[in-house]
Amino acid sequence: MSRITAAITAIGGYVPETRLTNYDLEKLVDTNDEWITSRTGIKERRILREPGKATSDMVVESVNELLRKRGISAMEIDLLIVATITPDLIFPSCANIACDKLGAKNAWSFDLAAACSGFLFALETGAKFIETGKHKKVVVCGFDKMSAIIDYTDRNTCIIFGDGGGAVLLEPNEEGYGVLDSILKTDGSGREFLHQKAGGSLKPPTHETVDAREHYVYQEGKTVFKFATTNMADVSTMIMEKNNLSSEDVTYLLAHQANKRIIDYTAEKMQLPPEKVLMNIQRYGNTTSGTIPLLFWDFEKQFKKGDNLILATFGGGFTWGSIYLKWAYDS
Ligand code: COA
After folding, report:
1. Ligand 1 proximity of 106 Cβ (cutoff 6 Å)
2. Could you give the C-alpha distances from 173 to 6, 39, 92, 133, 169, in angstroms and in order?
């Protein structure tokens, strides 16, 4: 019997309507469009502003799109995983809430937190449930409402992050398409450079933690930049070597959209020309777990059956990794 792999068979995505441009940020902090564009590649981000709306609402929008495209109902989903660091509540999980809102009554579900690497970690996890034959339809989502934990008085972080994400449907494939290989890594000693200081069990919320603005993202940008460039480039070239892929064999790189300079460095190490490097950072900024599914959503139309895609990421933890995926359909 041939090996069962997990192929992506449908995609959905969602970004909120409200745009936060570099010019808007100039009014909030001491920054300017030229600085942000040249240092990061970002021009604008989307912000989920409606009161009462949370990460699960964005998940629901994108999963409904994916179900419509595939012509199936929510009742057919076996498992739904949401990669996120901004769930609606600490518990129950965003995935549980999303399944309720979707009417996915036959699915079990859970969240996975690996910051910007969340989607790749969730994709690998979901793929394993397909490969064992246990499940036939697994939905993997990557979504964050970063505006919920960003301090819009801190110019080091507020220029980078935005809200949004996407979802993919995984189904069994016996023709060699889908998730073919992965290299995933964590190093928790990197937590001091990128984290949220309060709100967890280490420092439960108090008036003091709120006054000290400790519920927002804290980042030492320069250090994170250094680790991100080296590790993302290393792991991406490593997965190419492991699978005997030359730069000609790679159709596209889908890299975590954290900073254009980090992506360019990774592409250079992989010896990829610019047309093979997919980018939408200028429009959405860094949506954390959302960036790679948003690339799938935006660029789906140009994918062809058999395309070799390299996914690459780096994020808080530290977490990082790369996945080699063979695209399964003509879009
Ligand atoms: N606007 C204008 N000036 C700014 C600024 C802003 N938003 N933020 C910082 N500056 C200033 C600094 O104060 C500093 O001024 P100084 O030289 O007078 O001290 C100067 O610009 C350079 O700051 P620095 O932090 O060295 O800039 P950088 O080139 O490292 O860029 C980041 C900052 C955050 C864009 C960059 O470090 C980065 O992208 N890091 C990785 C972030 C990331 O990817 N995080 C997600 C993890 S997946």
Report:
1. no
2. 6, 42, 33, 11, 12
User: Among residues 13, 263, 237, which one has the least CA distance to residue 139?
Assistant: 13
Domains of the chain: 5-176 (3.40.47.10), 180-326 (3.40.47.10)
Is-catalytic flag, 256? yes
Is the shortest distance between the CB of 218 and ligand 1 below 6 Å?
no
Catalytic residue among 99, 141, 256, 259: 256
Cα–Cα nearest to 144, from 278, 313, 285: 285
Structure tokens at 86: 């901004």
Show the tokens assigned to 291.
Answer: 């960036």
- How far is the C-alpha of 9 from the C-alpha of 170, rounded, in Å? 6
Q: How far is the CA of 35 from the centre of ligand 1 (A)?
A: 9
pLDDT of residue 331: 83
Q: Please answer whether residues 130 and 106 qualify as being in contact, where contact means their C-beta atoms are separated by less than 8 angstroms.
A: no
Single-letter residue type at 112 = L
Q: Is 239 in the pocket of ligand 1 (CB under 6 A)?
A: no
Token code pair at residue 310 = 């390299």
DSSP 26-69: HTTSS--HHHHHHHH---EEEE--STT--HHHHHHHHHHHHHHH
Instruction: For 216-256, give the DSSP string.
Output: SEEE-HHHHHHHHHHHHHHHHHHHHHHTT--TTT--EEEE-
- Active-site residue (options: 22, 96, 99, 116): 116
Q: What is the pTM of this model?
A: 0.97
CA distance 308 to 177: 10
Instruction: Output the pLDDT for position 1.
Output: 61
**Of ligand 1's atoms, which has the minimum distance to the CA of residue 256?**
48
Tens digit of each residue's pLDDT (9 = 90 or more) over 110-132: 999 999 999 999 999 999 999 99
- Expressed in angstroms and rounded, the spacing between residue 276 Cα and the centre of ligand 1 is 27
